[in-house]
């Protein structure tokens, strides 16, 4: 007797349709699984046997063969426990086979028959909807994320429950998750925690307004990391489309908390010992890396020169393209990677070059070697460079100074982004073909830009990034045209200007 059940496995962050077929025959008892299963899938034989017996049903000594089609894709994880179990029970005629048509099943079984959560439930729900299936049966702890897809979801807690309603008929599916975009996250960190630092805060606001990449440069203890970690507190809330994207990524990576969805903007802060695969993604079956986990959010690299050069150079392509492709001998997967890069570094190995009161102990050769760990092409892709001075003790103890809060800054940024969204692009992502139309310069601005290009030897990429930053400054003021003061402020945040000033230009 043969029975078939719809299921799925992960293919990057998407779902790949898998048909589970169970054939039960007489002869020498055995239980084999074919179709390129990994060890976790093979071990499901023991879990399924115990789950069926402990749920009060018989597991007869027959010859059982399970096929996972398509046979040329490797299957991994415990996600196939439930569909294999259902296919076997249908082949044994414990449950009717006709009730399995057009229903997708995913879930890992415990020995007692309880269903445990799996990775990628929301992707499987989207796949079921795309294939016009009736819906998805999944563990109850995955039900909330799966319901975001708009497909019919039947959450179940254990094998007894699902066998019961397969015999008696499906109940009503769970309600679809309503208006996830209206959920607001609460940030514990706030700009008011930082005393002083008016210039870095201003640059942080500009970066947030246009999703620009930003580098904080300054001595240790000046507040570079504090500033970077407060960027999420001024960024707008995730839109509904962004919530779906982020939830799919984190679900596929197994990083979603129990019965939750992604509401906060991602903020990833990997250690400088991270590998290329950890940052970009990789593995025999490629998995998302930190750049993908930062999609629609922030990737913060603290102590930037301490990262291995090869790791940093791998960032150049995803910064430009907004995605990363991982290629292997038999497969290639593309992951989204539209993130905002925030980096922080000391000016020299000892950290005190340019400090107002402490003396630097580094030689010019040491400083040059330290800074050469970061290539020019990568620095050229960072739109804003700002020096962070240590806060003076008098300003810390002054009771008259009120630190700015994140709320009014977030409101200004939301207004600026609303203007950009009406154009179709955030300023950092404006396509080259329409940059002249969106970033309109007045006559004085054009003259200033020509002079700056000649004096600072700006690259073409640097030239266009300056214009995009000036566009963000203009949007914060609600100006339809980029004025001279907007462009002048954008220019002072380029590293080429600092180099030109140091040479007396």
Write up this protein.
The longest helix is centred in the C-terminal third of the chain and has 18 residues, at 406-423. The chain has helices at residues 39-42, 44-54, 81-91, 121-130, 143-147, 159-168, 198-210, 224-229, 240-252, 276-280, 290-293, 309-313, 316-321, 364-371, 376-380, 393-397, 406-423, 435-438, 443-456, 460-477, 484-491, 495-502, and strands at 2-11, 14-25, 30-34, 63-69, 103-105, 108-109, 115-116, 135-139, 153-156, 214-217, 267-268, 281-282, 287-288, 298-301, 323-327, 332-336, 340-345, 384-387. The strands form six sheets. A five-stranded parallel beta sheet has the order 11-14-17-10-18. Helix 7 packs parallel to helix 17 and helix 20 (460-477) packs across helix 21. The protein has 505 residues and is α/β, with parallel strands linked by helices. The chain folds into three domains: 2-168, Ribosomal Protein S5, domain 2 (2-Layer Sandwich), CATH 3.30.230; 191-429, P-loop containing nucleotide triphosphate hydrolases (Rossmann fold), CATH 3.40.50.300; 430-505, Helicase, Ruva Protein, domain 3 (Orthogonal Bundle). The chain is built from 22 helices and 18 strands.
Task: Tell me the CATH topology of the largest domain.
Answer: Rossmann fold
The secondary structure category is alpha/beta
Number of domains: 3
Please tell me the CATH architecture of the largest domain by its name.
3-Layer(aba) Sandwich
Strand order of the largest sheet: 11-14-17-10-18
Report the total helices: 22
Average pLDDT confidence is 88
In this structure, how is the largest beta sheet organized? 5 strands, parallel
CATH superfamily of the largest domain: P-loop containing nucleotide triphosphate hydrolases
**Backbone CA Rg:** 28 Å
The best one-word shape is elongated
The residue fraction in helices comes out at 25-40%
CATH class label of the largest domain: Alpha Beta
List low-pLDDT spans: 498-505
Count every beta strand, where a strand is a DSSP E run of 2 or more residues.
18
Tell me the strand percentage band: 15-25%
Straight-line distance between termini: 85 Å
């Amino acid at each position: 007797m043969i029975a078939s059940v719809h299921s799925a496995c992960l293919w990057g962050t998407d779902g790949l349709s898998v048909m589970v077929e169970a054939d039960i025959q007489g002869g020498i008892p055995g239980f084999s699984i074919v179709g390129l299963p990994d060890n976790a899938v093979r071990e499901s034989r023991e879990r399924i046997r115990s789950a069926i017996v402990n749920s009060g049903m018989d597991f007869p000594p027959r010859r059982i063969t399970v096929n996972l089609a398509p046979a040329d894709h490797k299957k991994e994880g415990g996600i196939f426990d439930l569909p294999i179990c259902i296919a076997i029970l249908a082949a044994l005629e414990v449950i009717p086979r006709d009730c399995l048509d057009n229903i997708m099943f995913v879930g890992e079984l415990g020995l007692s028959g309880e269903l445990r959560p799996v990775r990628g439930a929301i992707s499987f729900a989207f796949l079921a909807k795309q294939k016009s299936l009736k819906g998805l049966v999944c563990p109850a702890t995955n039900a909330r994320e799966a319901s975001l897809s708009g497909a019919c979801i039947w959450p179940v807690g254990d094998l007894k429950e699902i066998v019961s309603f397969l015999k008696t008929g499906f109940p009503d599916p769970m309600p679809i998750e309503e208006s996830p975009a209206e959920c607001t996250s609460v940030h514990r960190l706030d700009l008011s925690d930082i005393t002083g630092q008016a210039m870095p805060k201003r640059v942080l606001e500009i970066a947030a307004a246009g999703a620009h990449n930003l580098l904080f440069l300054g001595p240790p203890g000046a507040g570079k990391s504090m500033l970077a970690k407060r960027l999420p507190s001024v960024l707008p809330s995730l839109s509904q489309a962004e919530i779906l994207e982020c939830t799919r990524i984190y679900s596929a990576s197994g990083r979603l908390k129990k019965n939750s969805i992604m509401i906060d903007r991602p903020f990833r802060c990997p250690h400088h010992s991270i590998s290329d695969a950890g940052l970009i993604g990789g593995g025999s079956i490629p998995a998302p890396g930190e750049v993908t986990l930062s999609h629609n959010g922030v990737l913060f690299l603290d102590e930037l020169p301490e990262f291995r050069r090869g790791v940093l150079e791998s960032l150049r392509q995803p910064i430009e393209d907004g995605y990363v492709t991982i290629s292997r001998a038999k497969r290639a997967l593309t992951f989204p990677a539209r993130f905002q890069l925030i980096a922080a570094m000391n000016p020299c190995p000892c950290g005190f070059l340019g400090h107002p009161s402490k003396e630097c102990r580094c030689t010019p050769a040491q400083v040059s070697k330290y800074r050469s760990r970061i290539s020019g092409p990568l620095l050229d892709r960072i739109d804003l460079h700002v020096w962070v001075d240590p806060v003076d003790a008098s300003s810390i103890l002054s009771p008259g100074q009120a630190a700015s809060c994140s709320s009014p800054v977030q409101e200004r940024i939301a207004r600026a982004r609303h203007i950009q969204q009406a154009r179709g692009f955030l300023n950092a992502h404006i396509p080259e073909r329409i940059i002249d139309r969106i970033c309109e310069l007045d006559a004085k601005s054009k003259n200033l830009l020509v002079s700056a290009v000649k004096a600072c030897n700006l690259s073409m990429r640097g030239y266009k990034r300056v214009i995009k930053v000036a566009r963000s400054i203009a949007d914060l003021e609600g100006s339809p045209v980029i004025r001279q003061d907007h462009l002048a402020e954008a220019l002072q945040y380029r590293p080429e200007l600092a180099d030109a000033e140091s040479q007396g230009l």
